[in-house]
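Hi! If you just cloned this repository, the fastest way to understand the data is to look at a raw example. We've pasted two of them here, unedited. The first protein comes first, obviously.
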Amino acid sequence: QVPLVESGGGLVQAGDSVRLSCVASGLTLSRYAMGWFRQAPGKEREFVAAIGWHGASIKYADSVRGRFTISREDAKNTVSLQMNSLTPEDTALYLCARGQSTLRLSKGWGDTWGQGTQVTVSS
């Protein structure tokens, strides 16, 4: 059993929008920061976005700022990532993670990780 399960990925065209969701199974999120990361073949894992308790302290990578929006719904143990204006450079496996703070998540540290959902953007 995987505590964090991502969904919403798929094959899309450049310029499309996709909304990813991460649902916790038997794992509480309300007292933790949550983050999204991505990893493309041949590239290092990259921080994408993070959000603190009740939507405070939001952080974005420069590459996605203005295009992606992270949000959380603690009552449903869910964190989402709205991705707009997608380009082929956004193609990657997207993973969510729970962490102690948005700062720690922005540096790549999390205590629990999902297995990821694949987003492939064609041109």
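Ok, and the second one:
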Amino acid sequence: QVQLVESGGGLVQAGGSLRLSCAASGSIFRFNTMAWYRQAPGKQRELVATITSGGITNYADSVKGRFTIPRDNAKNTMYLQMNTLKPDDTAVYYCNKAPGYKAFLVWGQGTQITVSS
């Protein structure tokens, strides 16, 4: 079974930047379209961004132009570079397969992002 570990979260002021990491126990990024998700307090989990095995990325309108997904296949790790952070970005961030697969991988613990105004 593939394990996913998110890290890199923390507290940051609005306008600041953070880089999140999603480390996988296998070469999952070679075979799947992967995604970052987030879940804010009192809200459902939402899709933030996706990256295909070939490196094609897509972003939710709410983060487009501010977030990117660097990836290092050799390290079985993808990242979420978060710039110009806003209070509305406050959430727990998770990585997993993109929508459309038969099943998600087992969810990791997520990493908390808190953006202060």
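That's it. A detail worth noticing about the second one: DSSP finds no helices and eleven strands in the chain.
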